[in-house]
Target: protein acetyllysine N-acetyltransferase
Amino acid sequence: MRLHYLSNKPWQKWTKVSSRNSIYLRKMSANSPPGKSDGDDPVDRPVPSVPPNPVENLGARIRDLDVDSIRRYLAQKLGFYEAAESAPPVPVDQVLDEVNLDGIVKWIKNERCKNIITLAGAGISTSAGIPDFRSPETGLYHNLQKYDLPEPQAIFEINFFRQNPKPFFMLAKELYPGRFKPTISHYFIKLLHEKGLLLRHYTQNIDTLERCAGIPDDKLVEAHGTFYTSHCLDCRKEYTLDYVKERIFSDQIPICTECPGVVKPDIVFFGESLPDRFQRCLQEDFQHCDMLIIMGSSLEVQPFASLIDMVPEWCPRLLINREKAGMRSPLLRLWGVMSGGLQLDDDAVRDVARLGDCDDGCQDLADRLGWGDELRAMIARDYERLELEASLSPTPTPVATSAPAHLAHLPTEPKL
Model:
């Protein structure tokens, strides 16, 4: 069976990949840099300051659809209507020798696979004890009643935070980096780096466990920000992880030393722009990607969810998740509306789902690649290091600070 490589058709690289990527770039918001990462960043490129409204464009395209045709489509699906004979569909070249996990393993072992991008959501951190956001009963949004919020999402809304930062910092104390160890999934990503295969790791997570696992800064894109650095909301002075951690664990709201502003970790709240580094890296990375691995994400939050469609059309995509996610709608796909997404049905040519726990999936993939023992040894060695560092770490001591005027309704020396 012939593999369809983009390098054999260079004109497709620019007409399909670059064109498609520019469409998704226009969906991204203009960014202000809440935090910065070290490392070699791709060259900046101009982005339109006023992106088109994708919702309006979608609505216009739906209105253009023929209602009778949609009715026939639904009737056909329900078995009430048989469509007249039409020209056979154009065959799509199968990318993988086998459209399953074994096919993915063969692809990764192929010398052409050199630039793997990983996309990760909260599912890779749940085994560390960090809850995800949306799971029933156990998800973070389901267990925020004790913070007396107008709605669960308010704890991550910038306007609410400016008026009442206390609920966020109470939650931050429970979730703060340093209390959790990286998981098998994190170390599998690090192993990809050590094998020279990791082009970039994009994460929705703010827990910094990738950094804790030893993935280099220049390989990381923290799409929703990070606890690693913080800034004063008013004067923008930067603060370290330890500075903010010391105050949070002393049950205090971090206050700037230069002005009365609140010091906020550089995680992206609702109402804030995505990090500048996210915008810069995706312009360069995805056209070079030759293997995409999605791990522990519901693929519901935009624009992160759209990244799966920015890789070349010949690039295999592996989903490691508890359930299928990011699948495209058959009806809208039929009419070319929102045609992106994973294709995980019988007609798949490049998309594979390994359903179940993320750690189990990563260990399974490592075993099939012949890296299983190496991964286990890496984890054991690093856990020993982390336990030693924890035993030597001093307990945070209280630090005095004063409350700004607009937080006067909170306790003095604002306590959590």
In short: The first helix runs from residue 10 to 25. The chain has a mean pLDDT of 75. The radius of gyration is 23 Å. The chain has one domain: 6-39+54-85+93-407.
